[in-house]
Amino acid sequence: MSSQVLARKWRPRDFASLVGQAHVVKALTHALTEQRLHHAYLFTGTRGVGKTTIARILAKSLNCQKNGVSASPCGECEACVDIDAGRFVDLLEIDAASNTGVDDMRQLIENAVYMPTAGRYKVYLIDEVHMLSKSAFNALLKTLEEPPAHVLFILATTDPQKILPTVLSRCLQFNLKQMPPADIVGHLTHILTEEQVNFEPAALHMLAKGAQGSMRDALSLTDQAIAFSRSNVSVDAVRDMLGSTDTTQIEAIFNALIAKDGAALVSIAEQMAARSTSFYDATVELAQILYRISLAQVVPNAQTDDMQLNDLIQHIAPLMGADEVQLYYSIVTTSRDQLHLAPDAQAGFTMMLLRLLAFAPAKNEGERAKK
After folding, report:
1. Are 349 and 283 in contact, with CB atoms under 8 Å apart?
2. Is the confidence at residue 242, as pLDDT, over 90?
3. Is the pLDDT of residue 41 over 90?
4. Distances from the Cα of 186 to the Cα of 11, 48, 195, angstroms
5. Were 116 and a residue from 71, 122, 281, 289 both cysteine, which residue would form a disulfide, CB within 3.0 to 4.6 Å?
6. Nearest 10 degrees: Cα torsion 181, 13, 38, 33
7. Contact 346, 279 (CB under 8 A)
8. Contact 123, 90 (CB under 8 A)
9. pLDDT at residue 366, as a whole number
10. Are the C-beta atoms of 101 and 136 separated by less than 8 Å?
């Protein structure tokens, strides 16, 4: 296996290999094919969803020496190879977090008037553009509105709310979506198969969930899992690495709630602490499963990608009333936000479990009278 990290080794090199952003790929592909390019693009979205990757592919599409301006850069010519390697002289990647001032923008504007050195277009990629100062934005406005014919601006940000409306109005904006877990699992399956690394499919589902919609985070976690498990990515190894909640623990919590067994709930919390489980993540997991249970009660055919989770939901849903699920969901989500106020995370989580038990709806009049 190469020593290069997976996120760099498996970075998409063309639009065809890009995962999870079909709406952006479709628009850019049509624009390139019909030669109807905008002079400024704004890519927004959370970390690791492909903003910089799409910008580099677009730069290759504009400057490919073999195929010309097209949606299918060859990937073999000098321009394509240099862009992939990050050394193409006419692709200028600027970190706005480090170049926030008006003087930096003025220097950029002064250099923009010169023709490209090696390519067809001079492409300016300004990452985290929301970090620019107001004066820097204002200095950029005129050039952004009427740039030279050989210049293309690509702005990328994780926080579009901080960008001036006057800048937004001058750009063609694309919002990159978080990656669905199924897309992440499919991509990880392909990569680990190619890398000849043993893995369990359920472990990849856990990594996808831990990535929270970011493909780069998923690949970084996979790198970590490969090292942690000695190239055998198993469910147990990933759970220990992430401090994830075991499905059997979640099932045990629900069984104890149904049985009204307070001692079992306290024991489960102690076992989770012994395994260094993240109690915050455990409350999130409980809330997600309660949502799925409520959904299963209303829409019985609703399924998730996780077969083990489907089995748990199908087992628990008939044993709990709809009012009980709604009450539990409210308590769990409220407790999650208050977890930091507890003496420690275990105490806060245990109190949440006991609160679920204390406020559980009575099943019959005899039990209500007993309470």
Report:
1. yes
2. no
3. yes
4. 15, 17, 14
5. 122
6. -100
7. yes
8. yes
9. 43
10. yes
For 270-302, write each residue's pLDDT tens digit. 998 888 888 988 999 899 999 989 988 888 776
Across the strands, what pairs with 155? 42, 126
- The residue assigned the tokens 């940000």 is 157
Q: How many residues does the structure list for the chain?
A: 371
Q: How far apart are CA 71 and CA 260, in angstroms?
A: 61
10, with CB counted inside 10 A (0-12, 13-18, 19+), is buried
Tell me, what amino acid is at 109? I
Nearest Cα to Cα of residue 251 among 296, 316, 189, 187? 316
Give yes or no for a contact between 68 and 39, defined as CB atoms under 8 angstroms apart: no
pLDDT digits (tens, 9 = 90+) for 89-146: 999 998 888 877 788 888 888 888 899 998 899 999 999 999 888 888 888 888 888 8
Please, what is the average pLDDT of the chain?
A: 88
Residue 237: CB partners within 8 Å, gap ≥ 6?
A: 203, 225, 228, 229
What domains can be seen in the chain, in order of their start residue? 6-175 (3.40.50.300), 181-242 (1.10.8.60), 247-370 (1.20.272.10)
Q: What are phi and psi of 119, to 5 degrees?
A: -115, -170
The number of C-alpha atoms within 13 Å of 232 and in the hemisphere containing its C-beta is: 3
Question: What DSSP character marks residue 343?
Answer: S
Share of the chain above pLDDT 90, in %: 53
For 168, residues 6+ apart whose C-beta sits below 8 A from its C-beta are 42, 160
Mean pLDDT of all residues in 49-56: 93
pLDDT digits (tens, 9 = 90+) for 57-86: 999 999 999 999 999 999 999 999 999 998
Q: Which residue has the higher pLDDT, 364 or 16?
A: 16
Q: Tell me which residue of 271, 248, 276, 243 sits closest to 350, measured CA to CA.
A: 271
Distance CA 221, CA 215 (A): 10
Q: Return the pLDDT at 103.
A: 84
Q: Is 22 exposed, middle or buried (0-12, 13-18, 19+ CB in 10 A)?
A: exposed
- Confidence check: pLDDT of 339 > 70: yes
